[in-house]
Design a protein that fits this description.
- The structure is a homodimer.
- By secondary structure, chain A is an alpha/beta fold.
- Chain A has two domains: 2-92 and 286-305, NAD(P)-binding Rossmann-like Domain (Rossmann fold, 3-Layer(aba) Sandwich); 96-276, Rossmann fold (3-Layer(aba) Sandwich), CATH 3.40.50.
- In chain A, 29% of the residues lie in helices and 16% in strands.
- Chain A contains nine helices and twelve strands.
- In chain A, strands 8-7-6-9-10-11-12 form a seven-stranded parallel sheet. In chain A, strands 2-1-3-4-5 form a five-stranded parallel sheet, covered by helices on one side.
- In chain A, helix 1 runs parallel beside helix 9 (287-305).
- The radius of gyration of chain A is 21 Å and the shape is elongated.
- At the A-B interface, helix 3, helix 4 and helix 5 of A face helix 3, helix 4 and helix 5 of B.
Chain lengths: 320, 320
């Protein structure tokens, strides 16, 4: 049994931990920083932890691919796996803390006009305008997507004394006390007119394509805000542009886009009140996220090597 | 009894509320946007709500000045009041929510490198560097100043699952469950070496001058952060500059400075990892803050007109 780990983020303690588990099960493990630098003898591994898509495409021997990302949309196309029966697992669950902190930060940067004040400071200007501000306090927050990310955000947002936090999801169910109410996705149109801050953390699937379309953007109240940390497919970017430019939305913060990197000639760069971040909300550079990510893989590595089902397996047909 | 209200922020509902109270007690009230536009007959009011320092200086008839700010350091000098017995009250208690949100925002902007990512976005650049990040999760937070502002922040920070939140104050006491421990100010030197994020919200008094001096800044751990939303007198700015430039501190966010506005030729503008905001953490442009501010004044207006002691009176000798 050969295990290939592809990562430039791992620390020695993570390498040791994975090695110990492999060794205790008589498996071989090898660490590399990228798919381009494959050590001899590891061209056809049984298990990959990391972004090993080129190998998955040609290696019929691959039995399990564990990707360190939460989203797996890029693995749902045909011809991604040479082995039709290859198991796929993801790392959804390791990003909740870091992405929740991202959402709070960008939402408050917009509401408190820190985008403008910080922009002035970068130019060495003491800005004296006192712009109108908004607050998480007493705001009506809707989470479209209530997985690890949405719920981690809801738990933090609760401390800011919002008016209410509504969750909207496929199942319409959650046991987490951070939500005041939960709705199914087909109730989205009822919820949006009462939403001051919409936080989107959806996976990319055919059902989520342009789920925030023009009608829905303009059904939100004037002066409301949108944050998207899920996937760029979920928003009609042209409609968002129009809603920001005409002032219908007070702000939007996008970490994900239909095309990434966002092309340098995209008009989104200069859109009024649009806060752009380059898909960094869930970087592995936060120590806690990396810990959790490795913990999830090693938990499933034990499961796999001892013949148990994986805890973090993704349904390769459904895409989540 | 003549009441002068000086404000450019009040809405009609606030004007109505104040007028009703005045009228029901047989007092006259007059509203103006600045001290320069005084209506006839109100040159020597008995009560002022607003920044009426020029009048206080000359009007021996002034019995009560209520300022809409939390800090009152600028009123502690000699010759500020023509009437030695003039009562002073402030609006400490109305800024907790808005300044707590400011602190969370700037702390996370620094920890998550959004200062850099947003700076790149303003230049139209998709920044691909994955800088090392920090998190409020598992961080050791020390609050120097545990009044309304510090405690409002502590309540919110608690939801981010920090390692601990330590309060340091004059009394060393608090009943708020958001603190893991409370210390008196003379224990500050014991606390700083175990502090990842120091949040300062102190009034300006002789005791707080340069309380964060060079020794204390360098006693903090390498890679730690400082946020100051109190008054600029509390930090040795030269030492802070050195600690940031040499990388000892990972970041600092200052909303207050020894000299305000910060002079355009100050080297602080270009200091490494220094996030500057122009004394806007507690703007009255947030609706909730303004509501609370007016509520506090009207509560004390009823007290004053009915002969009871004021709830928000400031000790003019102590300065708080």
């Amino acid at each position: 049994m050969k295990i290939l780990v592809i990562s430039s983020s791992l620390k020695q303690e993570h390498i040791d931990k994975i090695s110990r588990i492999a060794e205790s099960h008589g498996a071989e493990v090898c660490f590399t920083e990228s798919e381009d630098k494959l050590p001899t003898g590891f061209e056809e591994p049984d298990i990959i932890y990391g972004f090993g898509m080129n190998i998955a495409k040609t290696n019929k021997n691959l039995k399990w691919l564990c990707v360190p990302s939460a989203g797996v949309d890029y693995l749902m196309k045909p011809d991604v796996f040479a082995n039709d029966n290859c198991i796929l697992s993801n790392s959804s669950g390791s990003y909740g803390v870091t992405i929740a902190e991202h959402i709070i930060t960008v939402a408050l940067m917009m509401m408190r006009r820190l985008t403008s004040y910080y922009g002035a400071a970068l130019e060495g200007r003491w800005e004296t305008t006192h712009w109108s501000q908004s607050s998480l306090k007493d705001s009506r927050i809707t989470l479209l997507g209530t997985g690890d990310i949405g719920t981690s955000f809801a738990r933090r947002a609760r401390a800011f004394e919002p008016d209410k936090i509504i969750g909207v999801s496929r199942s319409g169910m959650s046991n987490d006390p951070s939500y005041d109410a939960m709705y199914k996705i087909d109730s989205l149109d009822d919820v949006l007119p009462g939403t001051d801050l919409l936080v989107m953390s959806l996976p990319s699937t055919p059902e989520t394509n342009d789920i925030l379309n023009r009608d829905r953007i303009f059904a939100m109240p004037e002066g409301s805000y949108v944050v998207n940390v899920g996937r760029g497919n979920a928003i009609d970017e042209d409609a968002l542009f129009d809603a920001l430019e005409c002032g219908h939305l007070a702000g939007a913060a996008l970490d994900v886009f239909k095309t990434e990197p966002l092309p340098s000639d995209s008009r989104l760069w200069k859109t009024k009140n649009l806060l752009i971040t380059p898909h960094i909300a869930g970087n592995l550079t936060l120590g806690y996220t990396l810990e959790k990510n490795v913990d999830m893989f090693t938990e499933d590595l034990n499961n796999f090597l001892e013949g148990r089902p994986l805890k973090y397996e993704v349904d390769r047909k459904k895409g989540y």
